[in-house]
Design goal:
The structure is a homodimer of 413-residue chains. With 413 residues, the first copy, chain A, is an alpha/beta fold. Chain A is built from 14 helices and twelve strands. The first copy, chain A, has helices at 22-28, 30-33, 44-64, 77-87, 111-122, 141-147, 170-190, 219-222, 271-285, 289-311, 338-347, 367-371, 376-379, 393-409, and strands at 10-11, 71-74, 102-106, 127-131, 152-156, 203-207, 226-230, 241-245, 316-317, 328-332, 350-351, 382-386. Chain A has a seven-stranded mixed sheet with strand order 2-8-7-6-5-3-4, with helices on both faces. Chain A has a three-stranded antiparallel sheet with strand order 9-10-12. At the A-B interface, helix 3, helix 4, helix 5, helix 9 and helix 11 of A face helix 3, helix 4, helix 5, helix 9 and helix 11 of B.
Chain lengths: 413, 413
Amino acid sequence: MELGYFSMRIYLDYAASTPVAPEVLKAMTPYWSEKFGNPSSAHSFGREAEIVVDEARETLAKFFEVDFDEVYFTSGATEANNWVAASATNNKQLTTNNSKPHVITTEIEHESLLEPIKELERQGKIEATYLKPSRDGFISASQVEAALNNNTVLVSVIYVNNEIGTVQPIKEIGKVIEKFKSLNVQRLKEKALNLKPSTLYPVFHTDAVQAVQLFEPRLSYIKVDAMTVSGHKLYAPKGVGVLIARKDVPLLPLLRGGGQEFEQRSGTLNVPGIVGLGKAIELLSVKGVRQREHKRLAPLKEQLTNGILQIIPGAKLTTSKEPQAGHIVNVIIPRVQSQIMLIALDQAGIAVSAGAACSAKSVQPSPVLLSLGYSADEALRSLRFSLGRLTTKKEIEATLEILARLAKRFKIA
Amino acid sequence: MELGYFSMRIYLDYAASTPVAPEVLKAMTPYWSEKFGNPSSAHSFGREAEIVVDEARETLAKFFEVDFDEVYFTSGATEANNWVAASATNNKQLTTNNSKPHVITTEIEHESLLEPIKELERQGKIEATYLKPSRDGFISASQVEAALNNNTVLVSVIYVNNEIGTVQPIKEIGKVIEKFKSLNVQRLKEKALNLKPSTLYPVFHTDAVQAVQLFEPRLSYIKVDAMTVSGHKLYAPKGVGVLIARKDVPLLPLLRGGGQEFEQRSGTLNVPGIVGLGKAIELLSVKGVRQREHKRLAPLKEQLTNGILQIIPGAKLTTSKEPQAGHIVNVIIPRVQSQIMLIALDQAGIAVSAGAACSAKSVQPSPVLLSLGYSADEALRSLRFSLGRLTTKKEIEATLEILARLAKRFKIA
């Protein structure tokens, strides 16, 4: 407790979850107990709920530059990613009847994308290629190009990795896929099948959970067909997310029933959550706000990174090559296991993580770090600091001060 | 607008959605922007989120009389029902390798149970028997008994039907299944397979979305293995529900990823929603509260029912046989289509529904009413009034007064 003299706790785990923004909380308020109708109901209570869901959908459609009916609200990013994976089996364009749908993804995806794909592979329903990142945590467009074949129905590449913060070349990968589709049009024309390129495989999906609060969200600009977004990673509440998907994307409903969300995702809509997500996206829609926040975070991240490397000479960044998201710093420290350091920091009031939050309880080394070529031993000594909207210079300074004391205690200073 | 002289709107669609109770809203408050940690995170922000999720889980476990790890939080009842249906394909006890898993359900289930089962049947993954209700809307235990076979892996019967309010003989069906399991133990013993009856098929599941706020929730008492519950039908928010399932139930994860919910349901937990559901169940746990509410509603329902039948002599109840839930009145009115009457009532400030909320936008006749033997024409003239915690005698009187005026206008008085 010698370090517990800071009266405020410092939260540096924004990549795990963010607080709900005051504007978001305020926007949700009327929809709990006053305007509580089921948006599927035809009466005025239902209509007032439907109208605000529509408004949120419109806000999202504008932000992502897609049509109104290309926005599907889900219970979160895990559902959206599972939905995309399951839809890979919904295909009608394969070259031969016996061929299996082929999925290209990467070794550094979030588990909610990787696990359902691995499960479909185990069940023999798909074939999958898992692209290996470079030592610095990047997937290249040429890797994707080399992996494409005529059975490829889905390419899914994470926009910003949640553990190491690398920004993948989504636009370049999109171009490669676009080119492949044009060639496919030629191939199908020869078979007297006239299909628009947009309706052709593969679907290009990106998990943009850690990306849209700082980077380009427009689907046509980054050339993706589908995108996963989570509410609670961008100051909206937990329990709501969205799958943005072009109309041409052959979705296979994961949840069936009342036929909500254009018959693609059943279940009573989470009205307050959706209103909250709409407001959070509205806040991100203000011109320049994402760029300004990235600019504001960059020097804080630099200060934190340099501070850590100075305090702990044996520490190394898991990746240093650009482009990197301005909010994630991942370091491997010498000798001390992440779990030990994490607890010591926590006792001093500082919240950071070791690997992704979802697997924080497990003591397995991060598959992402293993994929980058780190040893299990190294991966078990990684710490992820993630910055957010409330992070201040003072907090970074306090964090470094505490880290210096702990480094001395653990004899890694 | 001649009828718009009531300043207050009257909500009689509690079966579609309920307002969040003030106690529930208050309980959720700290978890938006203050205690906003991800319960999967190991630091103090994560732990304080995990603790309240655990507390809610404990509250539910006590209420349903199950173990702590038999409570799986979901995004709602649709997900829970889809999950149960999908799990029917996860079976390892079928009599022969070629036999398909067999599911017994009813024609009067909610769409979120029926649609995924029909889809699995279309895909050839299961065989399904859909039990037909009596003209009064009841399924009998002997119907279930007659449909059971050695391949039956799942029996799913709705506890209280959401459209007509009939309470099914869940306990009697449970006994029939229990007996069948005991015989199965004998059969398997002869094959030198020693299995506990509890681990045997079929799993008995009930969709209790319209039931637990008024009726017996304890799994062992009503003899079910699994139960679906929705937050927003019992004064907790939309976007949260629960699947209660005995450890022996062979669940097949629908959402994979971070391994939350005992590796069975991935996705960041909706902490405020779960806290809200916990509080809503706590309110229902008070001794006698459900019975008292049922007693309070019974005369209101009777007043409403008698009033309707008196005002509109040609009206008939879709079902009148007991046992019925005290909160649902479903009538078929003469000549006037539900949609017309619904709009007229809505303009006068009264919210009721025609059929289930989820399909309120469609003009299809209710499959439940068709199943009871009503004609499409009759089914399209049905109105569902559903009462709730805020319903008063005054509201019922005002509703009848308005209904009397409308009946005159439509010449059905």
